[in-house]
Design goal:
The protein has 4 helices and no strands. The chain is mostly helical and 72 residues long.
Length: 72
């Protein structure tokens, strides 16, 4: 599912491709975001594509200004 988010698919598209309900997909994407400590779908997609640098601890004084960066 993470790969499909990385391809830019929405919940309904993912649900159709995986033969799941849209609510199930929404719940699983939220779970992935919690596990990866990403606070939005765009960051989750960047992480899936390998374009997101690993986040620092949220207590860091520079959070979030220097946290996220895209390669390439």
């Amino acid at each position: 599912m993470l790969d499909l988010v990385g391809q830019g698919m929405g919940n309904l598209e993912i649900a159709g491709k995986l033969h799941l309900g849209a609510t199930t997909v929404k719940s699983r994407v939220a779970s992935l975001m919690a596990k990866t400590k990403t606070d939005n779908r765009i960051k989750l997609a960047l992480l899936a594509r390998g374009l997101l640098i690993e986040p620092r601890e949220r207590s860091s004084p520079s959070w979030p200004e220097t946290l996220w960066c895209c390669a390439r």
